[in-house]
Write a structure and sequence with these properties.
The complex is a heterodimer of chains A (about 250) and B (about 400). Chain A is an alpha/beta fold and about 250 residues long. Chain A has 9 helices and 12 strands. In chain A, the strands form 3 sheets. In chain A, strands 6-9-10-3-11-12 form a 6-stranded mixed beta sheet, sandwiched between helices. Chain B has 2 domains: about 350 residues, no CATH class; about 55 residues. In chain B, strands 3, 4, 6, 7, 9, 10, 12, 13, 15, 16, 18, 20 and 22 form a 13-stranded mixed beta sheet that branches. Chain B has a 10-stranded mixed beta sheet with strand order 2-1-5-8-11-14-17-19-21-23, with helices on one face. In chain B, helix 7 runs antiparallel to helix 8. Classes of the chains: A alpha/beta (about 250), B alpha/beta (about 400). Chains A and B meet through helix 2, strand 7 and helix 3 of A and helix 6, helix 7 and helix 8 of B.
Chain lengths: ~250, ~400
């Protein structure tokens, strides 16, 4: 098992947001997490990545069979967990080419050495961004929603992850960009052993990713799990509220 | 009679020798008065030390070199083929050109405080640079004021004259030998930027931990002239206080002061810049970027004075405080003395943004390294119009400082 969550409870400040999640993600599997706003989806993935402020109060997170609770954010990243954030910050003074190099474990490019830097280009091409227009721009400064999402994926690719966590990679992205993102992720998966945990509200990105399993979160728990073809139409027909009601009624 | 003007100056200086500066810690000058310069020692250590402040003693890609060691000028070289550029020590220039007295102590008052007074009474050379009318020296001239004797007072007086429509880029590096811990550096600089001329002046300071530094600078810019000053200080010293003033005397004259300050340890920096917009449509800009860490205390002052129609100026301070024991105090002042002047100021001081730090960590970057990258990213855009090699050098020193701390 690549990732295993055992009765995971997570608090932010004094408030418990995740209230006992169990989840197993095998190698090369794609798991989607859906659910209404404020159901705990982002909190769950940020806690897996190890963001400070997301405190695990009970349970465990196992990655490749070992607990990673004691590893800090950057150690988990180096261990193979790469997260594409929903709203990545803009950073003035750090260029896109350099953050991609850093993500790959390299040093920022030193222009005084006069060696050309070609390393970051391929990752930008993979997500359909022309390198000459983006390499020297400051990270996310003045980027559109779609550009930010693509840059996140480019950085995640550069990290050579074992587990990719994509937090709403499709929010604020037009359908054309979505297609590019979906396809680039799939072609990456074909070439690498890597699992995906994707948080989304929509079926669009899932049509490209074809998840192994879909989980619906509600109030800090996984309420329902099922196959893509079975669960997503149900969500779309009945809505989360109704779906969860039925789930509760069935015990 | 001929030398009377100098005697007059000395008399004024003597009377002002007890006057403290309104800003900065008061320094007991007597501690430094009796220290005689030792004989210069040039070696690899000295070379690498001056390299760090942008000085290349082999003179590669520089049009001229002036290298002062304690009180003596050790190197004065000009790249052959450059016409219309003069460089020599100020005392020699004063004896050679009687007219130069009209430029000596005209933009800085000799009796402004005890430091200006001491600079006249214990004057130790300094450079005179003059670029003739319409001559453009775009390859930088480098000047280095180096201290090689522990506990010494160095008081150079520099005069820079850019004749009409000329252009010059000057890089000044001020530093000391690794064996020098304590010193007092009083530097007087007077810049004359005449009609349509352009001066880009970049000063890099790297002083030891017990150094006291009190530069005093005045600038006058005539019609359509441009003065750009870049000031960079990266290594912690004991105390620095300075407040240069630029008078934009002619129409459409412009001045820009840009400073990058990385203050750490027990450093005290009181750094100001003042632009007086006297000519119509003159423009000015003051920009400071400050990082304070350790127990450093930084005060950044700025003053814009609009006195003529159509003038426009902006003052900005951006600060980053990395430690609870460090502080930055920004004191901007804008004075409008004419209804048609447009002056603005902006100050923003804060801590490192956690969101950005976590973002880099999520990419696998360890926290100490992430902090230094963010600090570098913060300071970097404050280093304009510098030769790429020098810029790379400065970036490297920021990384080194952070690494040492981490």
């Amino acid at each position: 098992m690549l990732l295993e969550l055992r009765d995971l409870h997570v608090s932010v400040g004094e408030r418990e947001i995740i209230k006992g999640v169990n989840l197993k993600v095998g190698l090369n599997e794609i798991h989607a997490i859906m659910g209404p706003n404020a159901s705990g989806k982002t909190t769950l993935v940020l806690a897996i990545a190890g963001f400070p402020g997301y405190k695990v109060t009970k349970g465990d997170i196992l990655f490749e069979g070992k607990s990673i609770l004691k590893l800090s954010l950057h150690e988990r990243a180096r261990a193979g967990i790469a997260i594409a954030l929903q709203n990545p910050p803009a950073i003035r003074g750090i260029r896109l080419r350099d953050i991609i190099r850093l993500a790959a474990g390299l040093e920022p490019w030193d222009p005084s050495r006069r060696e050309p830097d070609c390393f970051s280009e391929k990752f930008l091409r993979m997500v359909g961004l022309p390198p000459e227009q983006y390499l020297d721009r400051d990270v996310n400064v003045g980027f559109s929603g779609g550009e930010r999402k693509r840059c996140e994926i480019a950085q995640v690719f550069a990290m050579k992850p074992r587990l990719m966590i994509l937090d709403e990679p499709d929010s604020g992205v037009d359908l054309d960009s979505l297609k590019i993102l979906g396809r680039s992720i799939m072609s990456y998966l074909q070439a690498h052993d890597c699992s995906i945990l994707v948080v989304t509200h929509h079926r669009h990105i899932l049509q490209y990713l074809k998840p192994t399993r879909v989980h619906v979160m509600y109030d800090g728990k996984i309420a329902v799990s099922g196959d893509f073809d079975e669960l997503v139409p149900l969500v779309e027909q009945t809505g989360y509220e109704q779906l969860v009601k039925e789930w509760k009624a069935n015990g | 009679m001929a030398k009377n003007w100098r005697a007059e100056l000395r008399k004024r200086a003597e009377e002002a020798l007890g006057n403290p500066s309104p800003y900065g810690e008061d320094i007991d000058l007597s501690r430094y008065m009796d220290v005689e310069p030792s004989s210069p020692k040039m070696n690899k250590d000295v070379e690498s030390q001056v390299e760090r402040v942008g000085i290349d003693l082999r003179g590669a890609s520089r049009s001229a070199t002036f290298f002062q060691y304690d009180h003596s000028v050790l190197m004065l070289k000009m790249f052959s083929g450059i016409k219309g550029l003069e460089i020599m020590d100020t005392e020699s220039a004063l004896s050679m050109y009687p007219w130069l007295k009209e430029y000596y102590w005209k933009l800085v008052n000799v009796d402004a405080d005890k430091y200006t007074a001491a600079a006249e009474l214990y004057s130790t050379k300094g450079y005179f640079i003059r670029v003739s009318e319409r001559t453009k020296v775009t390859i930088p001239v480098q000047t280095c004021l180096f201290i090689g004797t522990h506990g010494i007072l160095q008081a150079p007086h520099n005069i820079i004259i850019a004749e009409p429509y000329s252009e010059i880029h000057i890089i000044t590096g001020c530093t000391a030998a690794p064996w020098v811990k304590d010193l007092l550096h009083l530097g007087i600089s007077e810049f004359y930027v005449k009609r349509g001329a352009k001066v880009v002046f970049t000063m890099i300071h790297s002083w030891p931990e017990r150094a006291y530094v009190r530069p005093r600078t005045g600038v006058v810019v005539e019609e359509k002239g441009v003065f750009i000053s870049n000031y960079i200080i990266l290594r912690p010293l004991k105390s620095l206080q300075t407040y240069p003033t630029a008078w934009l005397a002619g129409r459409e004259a412009s001045a820009k002061f840009s400073s990058v300050i990385y203050a750490s340890h027990f450093e005290e920096v009181d750094m100001g810049s003042r632009i007086i917009l006297r000519g119509g449509a003159a423009t000015g800009e003051i920009l400071s970027k400050v990082v304070a860490t350790g127990n450093a205390k930084v005060v950044t002052r700025g003053q814009l004075v609009g006195e003529a129609p159509g003038t426009k100026a902006h003052l900005e301070c951006r600060g980053l405080v990395l430690c609870p024991s460090a502080s930055i105090h920004s004191i901007p002042e804008i004075l409008a003395k004419h209804p048609e002047t447009e002056l603005s100021h902006e100050a923003a001081i804060g801590k490192l943004q956690e969101e950005q730090l976590y973002y880099l960590m999520a990419r696998g970057v360890p926290p100490e390294k992430a902090i230094s990258l963010l600090v570098r990213g913060f300071l970097d855009p404050g280093l304009p119009e510098l030769p790429p090699v020098l810029k790379a050098e400065i970036r490297k020193s920021i990384m080194m400082l952070e690494a040492a701390k981490g």
